[in-house]
Write a structure and sequence with these properties.
Blueprint: H1 6-10, E1 26-27, E2 32-33, E3 39-44, E4 47-52, E5 58-62, E6 68-69, E7 72-73, E8 78-81, E9 87-97, E10 100-110, E11 115-119, E12 128-133, E13 139-144, E14 147-152, E15 158-160, E16 169-171, H2 176-182, E17 188-190, E18 196-203, E19 209-214, E20 222-227, E21 237-244, E22 250-252, E23 262-269, E24 276-282, E25 287-293, E26 300-307, E27 329-330, E28 335-340, E29 347-352, E30 358-360, E31 370-375, E32 380-385, E33 394-399, E34 407-408, E35 417-422, E36 428-435, E37 438-446, E38 451-452, H3 458-467, E39 473-479, E40 485-491, E41 502-507, H4 533-536, E42 539-544, H5 554-558, H6 567-579, E43 585-595, H7 597-608, E44 615-619, H8 630-637, H9 640-649, E45 662-668, H10 677-688, E46 694-698, H11 711-726
Parallel strand pairs: 41-42, 41-43, 43-44, 44-45, 45-46
Antiparallel strand pairs: 1-8, 2-3, 3-4, 4-5, 6-7, 8-9, 9-10, 10-11, 12-13, 13-14, 14-15, 16-18, 17-18, 18-21, 19-20, 21-22, 23-24, 24-25, 25-26, 27-28, 28-29, 29-30, 31-32, 32-33, 33-34, 35-36, 36-37, 37-38, 39-40, 40-42
Length: 732
């Protein structure tokens, strides 16, 4: 359900992990900066290499022969250094927990002794999570089987900081729903002075299990329990504690409010180790409070309170760099950066530590899309925005004085989607670019002139080359009968003849977790279609309706509140209706498809507007909104005890009796996200009204349908053959 780009989600791409001090072992392919921002460190060809950006000179920090234990190569999935670079912590032998491989084994290499030591060797293999070196590099802390441990690297002595953890009482990590909807996985933090560890404890005892059934791994079925709070069910109780590492003394923070009616999605230390900063959300997620918490005594002080008539997004929901934590402190911890939509746009503010003074840093009628870097010494924030075109993304910077205007740094000659990893000193950046006609290209640039290092201008050259080539993708806007103007892309049939009529296929997501219309290379390709849709004679179209997370302001994004399944569906249908007025689009051959939230939209479009959509392929859809999890569904729809009719009104199953066209419904029976029960609820309703359709259950496959031999090949074949049969290609 909560996917940004469905194609990327399908391939299970990992989100970027924030590169900041004392973070757990970082992904092996992640870029690291040296403290001065003048060099980078990468792991390639089984060795660690440092590159001076000014000269391009490479030096080997750790040769390949060092990455061996007992003569055997160590397969590294992630790594991080101690502060003084004398120790290297590596993550290996990993295993999947829900979405990502976040448990496995850890080893530490000591450069002074040239020795490897296994961390947590007394713990069961492949059970360690989020291991982090202490600030002085002498200890390492980690989670294993729902408990937190700390280990002395010199003596190998291991100490359990918590001992009561189990599947229902979780220390230092999270349950399914916190991970899925708040990106909360790593659940503990070393204090900067290395004397304390702050952590989350999740009490899921009051959260009911949902049982998936494994029917294929044995001749007897096996239930798989997942502590999963359905919408309308209260959240698991969550609290934050601080443990004194030497004494083991634990103190709970006295955060007010019923813990089963609130969430605690963010927590970090202040730089002086004297306090914690904690963000709390009420259950409806339309009110947030930020507290400063004292580790000694647990007293708390509220410093920020915000309310919204719809919901409040936390920063990891729109900036993936914060998925593993982080808090942007300034002026030695006396100020911090805060994001808010309170003036109608997502902006950044500088707030004093006590919350009494705030300064708007990014004024204007535009949204901040990402934070790329905060260069406090230079006085700039580097961020992404696109005030003129919501399908694109550019680099801006602005002085942190609250008086300046933003400065666009991406060249005007490079229209499209830009991503950057900006150096801590703001002098260099790793630049990625593409647009609908320019394939992905990467380069190193200097800032603020945005020039390729050492005379290389790879992006400029690629854009110039692409401009001479024809792209099958066209971007457009369409205004509906309701006055809503929507962005879209369209791929026309190859050798298009306007005197003929062609079939039309719409690709949808439509919910607050995903934007489909972005000016990126390959974004308009159909990864499930076996062949070339344009060459076969299809129009392929996608549209972003109100409620999608595009940079058009709060009103656009939040107009869908309590109206999922209504506002987004009408916008899509009315836009399609406008497009289908074109004489070369065949209204008798109109198909729609989507995955997860897009699968739900596909069902709603087929059922609510059967006169428009004649064929639908729905994958892993929420057919009945009351089956989904509480954090996501209550954020956007409210609490069903108060407005149950909204959930029913927006659910596809409510309109299933209206089906007239051809429907293919696909779902994995092992989907822990959108449960397979949605398929059975929908099937029952369609059977009740004698509606004929086709269903494909994939045994034990998860939400991504990525497991099992031959699955993707089968899915592609099924999708393509069904579409070609019921929505035949070609002009007529």
């Amino acid at each position: 359900m909560t996917m940004n780009i469905l194609k990327k989600y399908f391939l299970l791409c990992l989100v970027s992990i924030l590169s900041f001090l004392f973070v757990s072992a970082q992904r092996v392919d992640e870029l690291r900066w040296t403290a001065d921002g003048g060099s980078t460190i990468v792991y390639k060809n089984s060795q660690l290499i440092q590159t001076d950006l000014a000269t391009g000179k490479e030096s080997i920090l750790m040769a390949a022969d060092k990455f061996k234990q007992n003569g055997n190569p160590i397969k590294i999935s992630g790594y991080t250094f101690s502060t003084d670079r004398s120790k290297l912590l590596v993550f290996t032998n990993t295993a999947r927990v829900w979405r990502y491989n976040t448990r496995g084994d850890y080893w530490v290499y000591d450069k002074n002794t040239s020795q490897w030591k296994q961390v947590g060797k007394n713990r069961p293999a492949q059970t360690l999570m989020f291991a982090k070196l202490s600030p002085d590099g002498k200890k390492v802390a980690y989670v294993s089987q729902q408990n937190i441990y700390v280990e002395d690297l010199e003596t190998g002595t291991e100490k359990a900081l918590t001992a009561n953890g189990n599947r229902r009482l979780i220390n230092g990590t999270f349950d399914w729903v916190y991970e899925e909807e708040f990106s909360c996985r790593d659940g503990f933090r070393w204090s900067p002075d290395g004397k304390q560890i702050a952590y989350w404890q999740v009490d899921a005892a009051g959260t009911r299990d949902f049982y998936m059934i494994n029917n294929t791994d044995s001749i007897y079925s096996r239930p798989i329990p997942v502590e999963y709070p359905k919408v309308g069910e209260p959240p698991s109780s969550v609290r934050i504690g601080v443990i004194q590492v030497e004494s083991g003394t634990n103190t709970w923070m006295n955060i007010p409010g019923d813990p089963r009616q609130h969430y605690l999605p963010r927590m970090e230390w202040t730089p002086d180790s004297r306090e914690l900063v904690v963000q709390q959300l009420n259950r409806k997620q339309n009110e947030t409070t930020v507290f400063l918490c004292r580790p000694t005594g647990g007293n708390v002080q509220p410093i920020i309170t915000e309310k919204d008539e719809a919901w409040i997004d936390i920063i990891p929901s729109w900036d993936n760099d914060y998925n593993y934590g982080g808090w942007d402190w300034l002026a030695g911890g006396t100020q911090f950066i805060w994001a808010s939509e309170k003036d109608g746009w997502r902006h950044l503010y500088k707030v004093s530590r006590d919350g009494k003074k705030e300064t708007l840093l990014t004024p204007g009628n535009y949204d901040v899309i990402d934070i790329f870097q905060i260069d406090e010494k230079g006085g700039y924030i580097y961020f992404a925005a696109s005030p003129e075109n919501a399908t694109q993304k550019y680099l801006f910077r602005i002085k942190m004085d609250g008086k300046s205007k933003p400065e666009k740094m991406s060249p005007a000659s490079q229209p499209g989607t830009h991503d950057y990893q900006v150096s801590p000193n703001g002098k260099y950046a790793f630049h990625k670019f593409s647009n609908h006609k320019t394939p992905d290209i990467e380069e190193w640039i200097s800032l603020p002139d945005h020039k390729g290092l050492r005379g290389q201008n790879l992006v400029d050259n690629a854009v110039k080359k692409a401009s001479d080539e024809n792209s099958p993708v066209e971007f457009f806007t369409v205004k509906t009968v309701d006055g809503i103007e929507m962005d879209g892309w369209m791929v026309k049939p190859l050798n298009f003849d306007p005197t003929k009529k062609y079939p039309v296929v719409f690709y949808v997501y439509s919910e607050p977790a995903g934007q489909t219309v972005t000016d990126q290379y390959g974004n308009a390709s159909n990864f499930l279609y076996r062949g070339d849709m344009s060459q076969d004679g299809y129009f392929y179209i996608s549209l972003d309706n109100r409620g999608t997370p595009v940079p058009k302001g709060k009103e656009w994004r939040k107009s869908i509140y309590r109206k999922i399944g209504i506002v987004n569906i009408r916008d899509q249908a009315m836009a399609a209706k406008e497009l289908l007025k074109r004489p070369y689009m065949d209204t008798s051959r109109v198909a729609v498809w989507g995955w997860s939230g897009g699968g739900s939209a596909t069902l709603n479009l087929m059922f609510q507007y059967p006169e428009i959509y004649k064929t639908g392929i729905s994958i892993a859809a929420v057919a009945y909104q009351l089956t989904y999890d509480n954090i996501y569904q209550e954020r956007y729809m409210g609490i069903p005890q108060e407005n149950r009719e909204d959930f029913v009104k927006g659910s596809p199953v409510t309109y299933a009796k209206n089906l007239k066209g051809n429907l293919l419904y696909i779902h994995g029976t092992g989907d822990d996200n959108v449960h397979y029960q949605n398929a059975e609820i929908l099937i029952n309703e369609l059977v009740k009204y004698n509606k004929q359709f086709q269903v494909m259950p994939y045994p034990n496959r998860s939400h991504s349908l990525s497991e099992g031999q031959g699955t993707f090949n089968h899915l592609q074949t099924l999708y393509t053959s069904y579409l070609r049969l019921h929505c035949p290609p070609g002009g007529r």
